[in-house]
Amino acid sequence: MKLNRSFSPPERNPFPGTLLPFRFLPLDNHRYVAVNAGGEHIVSDRSSIQALIDGSMTSEHPQADDFEARNFVARSNTAIGMLASQIRTRMSGLPDFTGLHMFVVTLRCDHSCQYCQVSRVSEDRAAFDMTPEIADAALAHVFKSPSPKIKIEFQGGETLLNFELIKYIIEKATVLGADRDVQFVIATNLGFVDDEIIDYCRAKAVYFSVSLDGPAFLHDANRPRPGNDSHARTKNAILRVRNALGAERVSALMTTTQLSLSHPEAIVDEYVALGFDSIFIRHLSDYGFAARSRGRIGYQATAFVEFFKKALARVIEWNLRGTHLIESYTQLLVRRILTAYPTGYVDLQSPSGMGIGALLYNYNGKIYTADEGRMLAEMGDDTFCIGHVRDDYKSLIAGSNLVPMLRESMVEAVPGCCDCAFNLYCGTDPLYHYRSQGSWVGHRPTSEFCFRNMEILKHLIVLLEDDEEARRVLMSWMP
Amino acid sequence: MILQGAIPRQEGGAYIRLVSLDWGNGHTVKLNSSRILEFLDEEGAIRYVELPGNLHMPKEGDVLRIDLSCGTVRFLYRRDSPHNALFITERCNSRCLMCSQPPRVVDDGYLIDDILEMLPLISRDTVEIGITGGEPTLLGPRLLQVIQNLKLHLPRTAVHMLTNGRSFSSEVWAKDIAAIHHPDLMLGIPLYSDVAWRHDFIVQASGAFDETLRGFFNLARHNVPFEIRVVIHMQSLPRLRELALFISRNLPFAKQVALMGLELMGFARTNIDSLWVEPQEYGEILRDAIGELTSRGVNPLIFNHPLCLLPHELWPFAVKSISDWKNVYAEECDACVVRNDCGGLFASSALRRPAGLRAIETLPPSHRQFPAFAPTNP
């Protein structure tokens, strides 16, 4: 370097400075991933991590600058301030409190889905509809939440079978929520959609969430109904609603079954063929009917992870060919890895999003901390019921089981999670662990939730690190 | 464009510091076709000065500083230019390897005196005005007074101040500048690396990186908007992408990030062999850096790069950023179809003409017309 002599050459400070807190775990046969208190990560080999920890790393190390820039070592207190800022940012969504409010407007349904998580009854039992009185009481609780954004999601059964109540709730909520950003989503198989419903939903900016498990043979096998034409009806209805209201108003959710596992590419291709720009590859939770039909469905966690990887690869391939398609779970995880921004998916947060992120008001007025909570209740266990719509708000939130469940299941509190390198990227699922292991704290070494998330996170970190094309695709799904 | 020159010295009488050309306003200032400036000095005597032949022709609303005892004339403000800046001081507490305005240790407090006197003469319709130096914050409370007066005299004018930001490591500074409540103030603060040793080397000041970072956080805490500026050269290029990653992770509240081409003036000339890199060689690194920023919602801009030297997909980020008085185009540019959207070159680029300058003859197939960017930052 030829500098004029009045300029000083560079001066490297002695390495490593002060070590900042971080956790690490093996990524593959050769490498480790280390994650700091703010969630920044670095991939390195074991001997380098060892050298960092025991103080023998020098500024000559090829990753010395990276360890410093990513706040694994500190030159001054400023690094601590930066980590603190990231931690605060990650927590900044908490004060908004409950944003997602699910209303179970009816349990009536025309389908007999194998994995049905609601013990639904046939179409003509009106005793299983929510009443306007219960809806009013529930809405009063909804708007006690300080959240500036409120999403009201209609669940069932088949929600459109009680469309009158949906309209009632929308009308009331629009008035009560005049000072907020209120969004309405109807989860439905769309079988009962008609022009009246479409016109109403156009005027009120209502969104639809539809089950689409994959190509016809798969979808129909998973979701039997009289006539066995669920896929055809769903497809027609999607196109009809899309044409009438716009593509952004209809989103699809898939459910994974044993049969799905052999067809990752076909499922992704079906979503592309039907013109969706996102797909959410969900894990099956085996409640309700699914519990009784265990043996036919239910699958190895490993098989699901392989399925997920293949489906993601197909999604990435579509992107590289110019089709914009997002895999939503991956998008969520990549956001949690590459930024410190809070994310709103209640099932992957710590503290859990139960209650403080989402609440469910059942058709009978009972309030549950999550969708799965009412499904557990259908099987006879009311642990995740925090009260009834006639109870006062404070007793629901502060007087019930909720706070102990949240506190005891936080990643900082759970053995295994508290030391895990991925705990800032992952979350906690107290309900899954209660149901499958008997306690909401759970036992991580035998937890499928843990296994699944660790494997997927490792997979994504390797992709981000090694596959430049995949990295660009994943980053294009942000912010 | 020549904006300063020599005039014959005149004996006796106080010297006039500045005048505002104001046609038809009685005795104020007149300029005739022989380039003779007629004005009243401080004692009311009529003075005549012949302006140098090559001096840019003053126009109505311009502000000139005429120093009769030293024999100099200089433009301080031009009414029809989008690139006016208040030059606060030549002093600086950094000494960047590529500084285009090398600092001097000098007592130049009179510069602020001039500025404070000048502000009422500046048109209220001025869209934007810069504050530059040296390091403006070295002037302490007098700088705050300038900003306060800008708010008073030019309430509709956006102010863009260039500073190394180190003074804001003291929170009191951030608080004081925020307390002025200027309606449209933005600070332009450089950050050259994601690691202290490299940044401190580039600015030739130990501890600068840490101070600058603390400054960013203090400014954010008090809601003072700032942009981050990065000059691209041999010393900052190796970790440019990592710097983008660092900014998007730790400083996402920056209003924008300007990735800037090197201006070959001052120390940049002195150290040119340790700085100069051909722009067409770092297109990929630039693209990666921009990708890191946009994916986190941070707004990147490219300054001082002609379009022909940038990968096409980066054209939407390029800004016509070079101040008019030092902006030139090459011969090739006459035939270029995107000349009007392109910022051209620094006049000083003659020292190292970048390789690859060429006229774009046909628009690339994926090109969409984008509006020519107005210069936002001189």
Number of strands of chain B: 17
Low-confidence blocks of residues of chain A: 287-298
Helical residues, percent of chain A: 25-40%
Structural class of chain A: alpha/beta
Strand arrangement, largest sheet of chain B? 8-9-10-11-12-13-14-15
Anisotropy-based shape of chain A:
globular
H/E element order of chain B: EEEEEEEEHEHEHEHHEHEHHEEEE
Looking at how many chains there are and whether they match, the oligomeric state comes to heterodimer
What's the Cα radius of gyration of chain B? 22 Å
Q: What does the main sheet of chain B amount to?
A: 8 strands, parallel
What value does the Rg of chain A take, in angstroms? Answer: 24 Å
If you average the pLDDT of chain B, what whole number results?
88
Mean pLDDT of chain A: 90
If helices are DSSP runs of H or I spanning 4 or more residues, what is the number of helices of chain A?
A: 18
* Overall 3D shape of chain B: globular
